[in-house]
Amino acid sequence: MSDQPVIDTPYTLRQIEEMLGLSRSAVMGLVNAGFVTPARGPRNELRFSFQDVVLLRTAHHLRAANIPTKRVLSSLKSLRERLPAELPLSGLRIKAVGNQVAVKEGDAQWGAESGQLLMDFEVAPASGQQGSVTVLSREASSAPVAAAAKRPTPAVSAQEWYRRGEQLEGEDDGGAEEAYRQSLALAPDHVYAAVNLGAMLCEAGRCKEAVEVLEQAIRQKPDEPLLHFNAAIALEDLHRRREALARYEACLKLAPDFVDAHHNAAKLYEQVGDRQGALRHYSAYRRLQLAANSET
Tens of pLDDT along 226-248? Predict the structure, then answer.
């Protein structure tokens, strides 16, 4: 057995939040949507690689710019294949050049095909912290959007309210909740406003309200697996296990490769005494984990 330290996935969820300046619900929304597949630590906690740091930040920019999910996934796949496993000493700069994601490492620069983009940030070593990184925003191209989110006009759009909610999370949760509700009032089918609001409410112990928000969103977007998944988590917290299982199964019917849905469903089937159901989902979970590891 090798005594070489494992450095592939050194970052915890809390470190990811701090480095990227994103709320936990925003990070988990990106994870649950399949933009990255973090590993599991010895206590089943999520562990992230340097590549995950870059991909999460990129996915957040593209999603905020309303890039279609399929295009985001295509761009991230190309980006993942070319990113180094660890941060170079010179750091990296990721920005939009026309309709390409351009990555600059030292004097070298390469592009990954994407769509309309609004992004520009640097990933640099954090001084005095070995193995840590710092993400520096350089978002000149998206400044008008950010400014609109901070200073809403009387005709604020649903997307602007959503962006404002993301910015307020962790600093003014009451304001963030109001912003997400305003977003949903204007666009009841805004998936990420519903997901973030549901996560916020659950974290505050208001899971019944979270279920109501997510069920309303499901009526608008019944084919969105992420809504079913998050509703299942809220239902679990309310100990409504059979309803939660129904939501996990609905999620997996739409997205059979949703790894965390298999994992959660397996544990829940085990809790209700359905060993066959637990085995079925544990088997699918392990198969998908092995497939993901073989691709890295």
Answer: 999 999 999 999 999 999 999 99
Residues 19, 135 contacting (CB under 8 angstroms)? yes
Regarding pTM above 0.90, the answer is: no
Residue 132's nearest CA partner among 170, 103, 104, 91 is 91
Tally of CB atoms within 10 A around 261 = 28
The 10s digit of each residue's pLDDT in 164-194 is 888 888 778 888 899 999 999 999 999 989 9
Q: In this structure, is residue 207 part of a structural domain? A: yes
Domain extent for 76: 11-141
Q: Return d(Cα 274, Cα 278) in angstroms, integer.
A: 6
Q: What is the CATH number of the domain that holds 115?
A: 1.10.1660.10
- Alpha-carbon Rg of the chain, whole angstroms? 19
Q: Which helix (H) or strand (E) segment is 97 a member of?
A: strand 92-97
Distance of CA 278 to the CA centre of its chain: 26
Q: How many domains does the chain have?
A: 2
Q: Is the domain of 193 the same as that of 129?
A: no
72 located within any domain: yes
Question: Is 227 within 8 Å of 221 (Cβ atoms)?
Answer: yes
| DSSP assignment string, 217-250 | HHHH-TT-HHHHHHHHHHHHHTT-HHHHHHHHHH
Report the alpha-carbon distance of residue 56 to residue 276 in Å, rounded.
35
- The answer to the question of residue 246 being in a domain is yes
Distance in angstroms (rounded) separating the CA atoms of residues 50 and 34? 17
